[in-house]
């Protein structure tokens, strides 16, 4: 592929989980001259989800066309946006927050809204539902940047712990660069 | 003083085993000064191995005293470790590392929480150190460089794992 006019797209694909989604999708992109940047691919419940940065010289329409045979045959939903790549600008997280408790609606909303007010910039969040149907558990890990320092985050975490009755722990991340 | 160029992966020298230092001459002292200047100029500033400037000799400098969040942890300040050898390891702990030779990436690595090591100082005199925590992590990371290992060789999952709560 020519790099005369490189463009970056965020490609989102979602479908029922089945084997070979990643290999088929990435082969179609490679054959069309695409190049992957950072990606996140994982099973959420019975679904497989892909978000990936793709460098591609053509248009959104061209990229849709390049993927259409895979998305049709595997019944995947496809969405594409043009983006600024901004690679090589990772922010190093300085705090990690772990949450777990009996699953109920509103945990993420409650926790993240007070953390945001206390200056947390979320860099990475992943959460799982564990347990069984009768007693589901919610488990969440957040890594982020404490833009106003650790103190305000520690204060609100104490409040959430007392008011909501969930287990929530904040740990500072020390990064050793050697 | 001179700040040397840091070599970055995939430079093959980062995968090679460095050789023992035998001559404690003026050339060595001058190199140690340059290596120190290079460490201080880098993004981490807490540790460097000679390997990282393409000099395949078993020389490491560690100085965690300038790390802003070290708080009250015990440490030895500025350390020149020549031909270092770890004699004892205790307690494994996960922590986040990055590397001047692998820019723009950090990951979790399990290291011994407490170590005992032998090393020669810049005059060739044998010293023994007991160290812990962040300083022990830095020393293990740098000694790995002397053996051709990067923290990328020791990464553990960033998902689904809890850091141990601080006491």
Topology:
The complex is a heterodimer of chains A (178) and B (167).
Chain A: E1 7-16, H1 21-31, E2 35-44, E3 47-56, H2 60-74, E4 77-83, E5 95-102, H3 107-117, E6 120-131, E7 136-146, H4 150-164, E8 167-172, E9 175-177
Antiparallel strand pairs in A: 1-3, 1-4, 2-3, 5-7, 5-8, 6-7
Helix pairs in contact in A: 1-2, 3-4
Chain B: H1 26-41, E1 47-49, E2 59-63, E3 78-99, E4 102-120, E5 126-132, H2 133-146, E6 155-156
Antiparallel strand pairs in B: 1-2, 2-3, 3-4, 4-5, 4-6
Question: What does it look like?
Answer:
The complex is a heterodimer of chains A (178) and B (167). With 178 residues, chain A is α+β, with helices and mostly antiparallel strands. Chain A has a four-stranded antiparallel β-sheet with strand order 2-3-1-4, covered by helices on one side. Chain A is globular, with a radius of gyration of 20 Å. With 167 residues, chain B is an alpha+beta fold. Helices cover 18% and strands 35% of the residues of chain B. Chain B is built from two helices and six strands; from the N terminus they run αβββββαβ. In chain B, strands 1, 2, 3, 4, 5 and 6 form a six-stranded antiparallel β-sheet that branches. The N and C termini of chain B lie far apart (42 Å). Chains A and B meet through strand 6, strand 8 and strand 9 of A and strand 1, strand 3, strand 4 and helix 2 of B.
Keywords:
heterodimer; A: 178 residues; alpha+beta; 4 helices; 9 strands; B: alpha+beta; 6-stranded antiparallel β-sheet
Over all CA atoms, what is the radius of gyration of chain A? 20 Å
**What oligomerization state is this entry in?**
heterodimer
Order of adjacent strands in the largest pleated sheet of chain A: 2-3-1-4
Instruction: Estimate the mean pLDDT confidence of chain A.
Output: 95
* Uncertain segments of chain A: none
String of helices and strands of chain B = HEEEEEHE
By DSSP, the count of extended strands of chain B is 6
Work out the helix count of chain A: 4
What is the alpha-carbon Rg of chain B in Å? 15 Å
